[in-house]
């Protein structure tokens, strides 16, 4: 059986209930799975130290090895990635199957299938025509398949009301994270003997803290304003920057909009203030906009940083900006296929040449991921056979997410000891939890942060998986967790009921 035929058969498998990493996993027999796979209990700090010592000794004993725990990049040993940590590993994930266009490019005989719409076939043909040899099994250009880069530029132009986008400034990558990492690596250069610094929101998405640690750069956290729907306060940016300049050379300002894990959507006036700050302080802006389709709260609207920056005119329209989009998020959620793009704006041509040289060393992003991204940036248009069905399905997904966003925030605000901001956008809530002193003492004795202690007990007793706020960063003395709004409504209601019952018992135990 050919690889492409096997892919096709996989694509026609039955669709199951989807849960994402770092999400809420509702009673999927997590503890039973743990027993089946003989998962050990989390190690104590003493056991962890013993294991590290044993591993180091093993490396010494095997002298034929050139690489040991003692001579690898030390920054990697300090790196953490909360949404893929031990709590989530124990919960498990179910992936989605592939869709029609990917099936066509993977197995061209499907072009003869009359049940597949003509516009889906056209999109697949355009992609194959852009591939060397007409096959997704061949390498593409390092920056991605040209026709898909052109489609991405057209998508950005439509999104931004006609503001031009140059396809040659579009770089395709393995998810948005691939683009973020290569751009961050480009700016990994000491300035006046100081480490380059990256300003990131707190709470933040752990990709940033992990990459900063891996690249041995300086993490500069600025706190989002929880009392103001997780808004971004310019005075806080200034405080953070002033403090950071004592020991580092800040170069990048990262803004996540809509927010992950906090679910906020920035207002246009707030974005204008952020742009003015970045221009005044000579910072390169990284606009993480992967949830741009996911806006739920009435009165909230997504504004791209590029659009606002260009409409503000000079000097702002001449600023350097890197914006990121992905097919893993939004209404599509093809996390495992790994497709994304970066648009670089106003980058020096010589620097752009160095960037392209850098990505050429990575050969090319997966062509399957590029094909799926094309479905995102080049969706069915009015008058095409698939348009009405596409619009109907997209609207239904987003409306259902809006209802679930309201349900999650409302329910958590009804539970004693919780407070939760509205989920204005993205796919997550980040409620604050006030834990009793006895619970804090118990967590300390167990060698865990208090929110991690709570999350492990929740997982063990209910099968529900949340990601502790300590993995994202939070103000000292506060405790949060990230939970998703992705489960279907009935499952979500069941989960929230279980959560409430668990919390009531937890309070009785530790009050």
TrEMBL record:
<dbReference type="GO" id="GO:0030170">
    <property type="term" value="F:pyridoxal phosphate binding"/>
</dbReference>
<dbReference type="GO" id="GO:0004021">
    <property type="term" value="F:L-alanine:2-oxoglutarate aminotransferase activity"/>
</dbReference>
<dbReference type="Pfam" id="PF00155">
    <property type="entry name" value="Aminotran_1_2"/>
</dbReference>
<keyword id="KW-0032">Aminotransferase</keyword>
<protein>
    <recommendedName>
        <fullName>alanine transaminase</fullName>
        <ecNumber>2.6.1.2</ecNumber>
    </recommendedName>
</protein>
<keyword id="KW-0663">Pyridoxal phosphate</keyword>
<dbReference type="InterPro" id="IPR045088">
    <property type="entry name" value="ALAT1/2-like"/>
</dbReference>
<comment type="pathway">
    <text>Amino-acid degradation; L-alanine degradation via transaminase pathway; pyruvate from L-alanine: step 1/1.</text>
</comment>
<feature type="domain" description="Aminotransferase class I/classII large">
    <location>
        <begin position="102"/>
        <end position="495"/>
    </location>
</feature>
<dbReference type="InterPro" id="IPR015424">
    <property type="entry name" value="PyrdxlP-dep_Trfase"/>
</dbReference>
<dbReference type="InterPro" id="IPR015421">
    <property type="entry name" value="PyrdxlP-dep_Trfase_major"/>
</dbReference>
<comment type="similarity">
    <text>Belongs to the class-I pyridoxal-phosphate-dependent aminotransferase family. Alanine aminotransferase subfamily.</text>
</comment>
<comment type="subunit">
    <text>Homodimer.</text>
</comment>
<dbReference type="GO" id="GO:0042853">
    <property type="term" value="P:L-alanine catabolic process"/>
</dbReference>
<keyword id="KW-0808">Transferase</keyword>
<dbReference type="InterPro" id="IPR015422">
    <property type="entry name" value="PyrdxlP-dep_Trfase_small"/>
</dbReference>
<dbReference type="InterPro" id="IPR004839">
    <property type="entry name" value="Aminotransferase_I/II_large"/>
</dbReference>
């Amino acid at each position: 059986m050919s690889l492409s035929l096997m892919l096709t058969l996989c694509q026609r498998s039955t669709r199951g209930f989807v849960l994402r990493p770092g999400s809420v996993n509702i009673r999927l027999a997590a503890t039973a799975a743990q027993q089946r796979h003989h998962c050990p209990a989390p190690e104590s700090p003493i056991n962890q130290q013993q294991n590290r010592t044993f591993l180091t000794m093993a490396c010494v004993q095997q002298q034929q090895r050139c690489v040991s725990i003692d001579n690898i990049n030390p920054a990697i040993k300090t790196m953490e990635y909360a949404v893929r940590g031990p709590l989530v590993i124990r919960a498990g994930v179910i992936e989605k199957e592939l869709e029609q266009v990917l099936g066509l490019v993977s197995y061209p005989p499907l072009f003869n299938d009359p049940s597949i719409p003509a516009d889906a076939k056209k999109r697949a043909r355009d992609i194959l025509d852009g591939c060397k040899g007409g096959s997704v099994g061949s390498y593409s250009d390092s920056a991605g398949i040209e026709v898909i880069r052109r489609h991405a530029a057209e998508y950005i132009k439509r999104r931004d009301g006609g503001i031009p986008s140059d396809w040659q400034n579009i770089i395709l990558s393995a998810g948005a994270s691939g683009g973020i990492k290569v751009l961050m690596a480009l700016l990994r250069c000491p300035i006046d003997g100081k480490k380059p610094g990256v300003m990131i929101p707190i709470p933040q998405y752990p990709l940033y803290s992990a990459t900063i640690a891996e690249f041995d750069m300086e993490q500069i956290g600025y706190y989002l304003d929880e009392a103001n729907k997780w808004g971004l306060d310019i005075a806080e940016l200034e405080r953070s920057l002033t403090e950071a300049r004592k020991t580092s050379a800040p170069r990048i300002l990262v803004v996540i909009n809509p927010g992950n894990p906090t679910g906020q959507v920035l207002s246009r006036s707030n974005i204008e203030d952020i742009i003015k700050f970045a221009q005044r302080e000579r910072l390169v802006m990284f606009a993480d906009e992967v949830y741009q389709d996911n806006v739920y709260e009435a009165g909230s609207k997504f504004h791209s940083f590029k659009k606002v920056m260009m409409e503000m005119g000079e000097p702002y329209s001449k600023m350097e900006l890197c914006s990121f989009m992905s097919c893993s998020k939004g209404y599509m959620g093809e996390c495992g296929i790994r497709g994304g793009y970066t648009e670089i704006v106003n980058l020096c041509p010589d620097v752009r040449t160095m960037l392209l040289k850098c990505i050429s060393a990575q050969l090319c992003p997966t062509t399957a991921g590029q094909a799926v991204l094309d479905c995102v940036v080049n969706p069915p248009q009015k008058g095409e056979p698939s348009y009405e069905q596409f619009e109907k399905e997209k609207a239904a997904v987003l409306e259902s997410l809006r209802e679930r966003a309201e349900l999650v925030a409302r329910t958590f605000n009804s539970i004693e000891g919780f407070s939760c901001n509205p989920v204005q956008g993205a796919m997550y809530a980040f409620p604050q939890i006030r834990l009793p002193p006895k619970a804090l003492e118990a967590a300390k004795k167990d060698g865990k942060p208090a929110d991690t202690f709570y999350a492990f007990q929740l997982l063990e007793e209910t099968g529900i998986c949340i990601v502790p706020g300590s993995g994202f960063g939070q103000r000292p003395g506060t405790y949060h967790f990230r939970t998703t709004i992705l489960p279907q409504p009935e499952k979500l209601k069941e989960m929230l009921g279980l959560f409430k019952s668990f919390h009531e018992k937890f309070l009785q135990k530790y009050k």
